[in-house]
Amino acid sequence: MKYEIVSGPHTHGGDSSSLIMYQVVLALVPATLFGIYLFGLSALMVLLTACASALITEWLMLYWRGANRASVMDGSALLTGWLLAMSLPPATPWWVVVLGSAFAIAIGKHAYGGLGNNLFNPAMLARVMLLICFPVELTDWHAVTPIALGEHGIVLNSYWLGVDAMTAATPLSHDASALSPLALMSGQHAGSMGETSSLLILLGGVFLLWRKVINAVIPTALLLGLAVPAFVLHLVSPEHFLSAGTHLFSGAAFLAAFFIATDMVTSPASSKGQWVYGVGCGVLIYLIRTFGNYPEGAAFAVLIMNATTPIIDHYLRPAVFGAKPTFFKEGKA
Amino acid sequence: MQTLFAKPFRGGIHPTGHKERTEQSQIEKLPTPKRIFLGLQQRNGTLLTPLVKVGDYVGKGQLVAKGASDMAVPLHSPVNGTVVEIRDYVSAHPSGIKIKTLIIKSSEDNSWSENYPPINPDTLSQDEMIQRILDAGIVGLGGAGFPSGVKLRLAKQKGVHTLLINGGECEPYLTCDDRLMQEHASEVVAGIELMVRAIGAKEALVAVEDNKPRSIEALSHAASEIENISVKVVPSLYPMGSERHLIKAVTGKTVAPGELSVALGILVHNVATARAVYHALRFNRPLIERVITVSGGGIEQPKNLVVPIGTPVSDLLTACGGLTMSAQRLVAGGPMMGQVIPSPYTPVDKSIGGLLALNEQEVRDDQSHDCLRCGRCVSACPMGLMPFQMAAHSRVSDYEGAQDYGLNNCLLCGACSYVCPSRIPLVQHFSHARGQINAQRSMAQKSALARKLTDARKQRLDREAAAKQAEKEAKAAARKKKAAEKKAKQAAAKAAAGE
């Protein structure tokens, strides 16, 4: 029996940060396995390299900062590495992946003061850094070469094993109207691991919603922010603008909606703020995809909205119980 | 009877109830303790003057200490016995601060010292009723411990129309109110009737959480004949017992931040307080005992006990079979808002409704980590605040920033800490910040007073100096005048002599 002076509550719900992180990782597993099935060993290598280098960098950074090195296994570094791998082309050279992972952890996270203090989503920061520094490697999309079932059992073709490769264009960079939303949803097309099967990503997202790891505001707001302008412009001029379905089910829209934009550290905490942030992400993805130079806008959109999170959190606060509801809170300057 | 919609207010949590440990345990009487320890300093710091001295015989129910104002609640002896000592003794304050304490050695005799004949409260006026409640030493038994008579008097002055009786008992483990409502429903209802009359209210609503069906039934039955008392069922949601949240759940009205519920014409009292009021008015009996739930994984036989005020915690533990090996922390009150008990010799006071011995699995003490900004605390906060921001500002001693994010509206209910995945001791940060702000405020007040006094002194000295100067000048002028007169006289005399 101890008689130390501590303040209440003297019990706890049992939730923990690691639990949250590992549940997110778990939610990514189906889409990841499907990605490996589609793209072969090179995809698996990208995943393993990204996670391993993220963990090693995390340990080194914790060591340098004199922080508790046990928290290397808290799941946050693993998740960052995993998300980066999900957003890279499956054929990315290993040294590019290592560089990306190390950048995500060292610059994207620890330079800001470690877990919880970073302004930008580390995985997306690394993704964008790599895209700008290594444009050739980062746009080397391979065609899907799934495992097939032959006469004598499973057939692993030379593409799957990574001995040979066949390049292809991603739906958004090419003529996407050729693919039906259903085909896009199932993921039988070129892209990064996390961009192929929207259906499996959605499955993971629903799991996170069910486990209450994330709430539905940001995903809903993001998908609406993307779909509404797409729908309107497609209605006006179908030849020039892709349909809302194509926008939703291709590229990283679902990955961004459920896994990237919902990153707790870099998104607002109040539901008012989350609506603004989510819609902002969605609209920006649409604008960058449609009018920008880059085919894939999710990473840029999320980073831009990350930058607004502190100001959103400052001005868009929940209404104090009993006080007159106001949209803006006049905070201390 | 009416069931309200599922979520009557934003935020709130559903902590594990653990009420099954004691909800079937009938209230038992604790054997008279050998010694009773009555602290002569209240939680708010008010001092009481003992009316007895060492060696005096005191009877059960005898007034033994009282204070200067109505905010100082009179103390009555809960036993027959002898005052053996008046000395500093450990109190229920978490710091274990020692306060002047009256120690009474009890005798075997358990009868009331006076023969309290039943009286007809209908013959009492409203003011007389309130005075009797004050004299009986009744405080809010829900936990706040505010003098009930003072609350009732304020309500009467402000013309309160609704008396809301709090039977929520939203804290996990505690079942003392639940058992009280079941076993003494008629006394509770009678007390409510008397309180309604004392403040001149139109009606009384008794709010009970839907996880206490037997209490709801017992109260509804007891109140079925009385027109202006109705039982309202509210959903089980922590912190339903908070005054503001209970009012919202039952009436749909919200109390503005910084205002009291009486502004809406509503007064909130606890069920156990209602019963104490009944005893005080019907039998003129003072508050000398209360029901306490003794529970938790560290208790061998959890029970609901009637405990004389001033009983040491160790007596309660003994009556419940003692502590288990796994007991880790002693808590007075519920696990959410209760405070640690500094020693097993701490006496219980009027505002302690629960004694919990929690084991390791219940306390779930864990290392705290960096804030993820996950926002779970924001969703859980029943006051609509942003706890993680308040904590971040408090941590770096930016108390103004913490207040900007709503520190002053915080209930310290602990919902945020309960859900925090990083185990950040949010409530601790808030209590600390509040303490610092209070200290700063009293320092500011002190220095303002000192400045005022210095200014006054300087003004007085100036005034005195000016007066002295004026006097001096006046004297000088008078002297001059006299001299001039003398001269004139002399000159006149000379002139007369010269003639």
TrEMBL record, chain A:
The chain crosses the membrane at residues 20-39, 46-64, 84-107, 217-236, 242-262, 274-292. GO terms for biological process: electron transport chain; transmembrane transport. The keyword Magnesium does not apply. Keywords: Cell inner membrane, Cell membrane, Electron transport, Flavoprotein, FMN, Membrane, Phosphoprotein, Translocase, Transmembrane, Transmembrane helix, Transport. GO terms for cellular component: plasma membrane. It holds the Pfam family NQR2_RnfD_RnfE. The modification FMN phosphoryl threonine is found at T170. The complex is composed of six subunits: RnfA, RnfB, RnfC, RnfD, RnfE and RnfG. Part of a membrane-bound complex that couples electron transfer with translocation of ions across the membrane. This is Ion-translocating oxidoreductase complex subunit D. It comes from Reinekea marinisedimentorum.
From TrEMBL, chain B:
Keywords: 4Fe-4S, Cell inner membrane, Cell membrane, Electron transport, Iron, Iron-sulfur, Membrane, Metal-binding, Repeat, Translocase, Transport. GO terms for biological process: electron transport chain. Signal peptide: none annotated. The keyword 4Fe-4S applies. It is an enzyme of class 7 (translocase). Its cofactor is [4Fe-4S] cluster. Residues 361-391, 401-430 form the 4Fe-4S ferredoxin-type domain. Residues 490-499 have a biased composition (Low complexity). Residues 453-476 have a biased composition (Basic and acidic residues). Residues 453-499 are annotated as: Disordered. Binds 2 [4Fe-4S] clusters per subunit. It is a peripheral membrane protein. [4Fe-4S] cluster 1 binds at C371, C374, C377, C420. Its EC number is 7.-.-.-. PROSITE patterns: 4FE4S_FER_1, 4FE4S_FER_2. InterPro entries: 4Fe4S_Fe-S-bd, 4Fe4S_Fe_S_CS, Ion_transpt_RnfC/RsxC, Nuo51_FMN-bd, Nuo51_FMN-bd_sf, RnfC_N, Single_hybrid_motif, Soluble_ligand-bd. SUPFAM superfamilies: alpha-helical ferredoxin (SSF46548), Nqo1 FMN-binding domain-like (SSF142019), Single hybrid motif (SSF51230). It is found in: Cell inner membrane. Pfam families: Complex1_51K, Fer4_7, RnfC_N, SLBB. The keyword Iron applies. Part of a membrane-bound complex that couples electron transfer with translocation of ions across the membrane. The complex is composed of six subunits: RnfA, RnfB, RnfC, RnfD, RnfE and RnfG. HAMAP family: RsxC_RnfC (MF_00461). Belongs to the 4Fe4S bacterial-type ferredoxin family. RnfC subfamily. This is Ion-translocating oxidoreductase complex subunit C. It comes from Reinekea marinisedimentorum. The gene is rnfC.
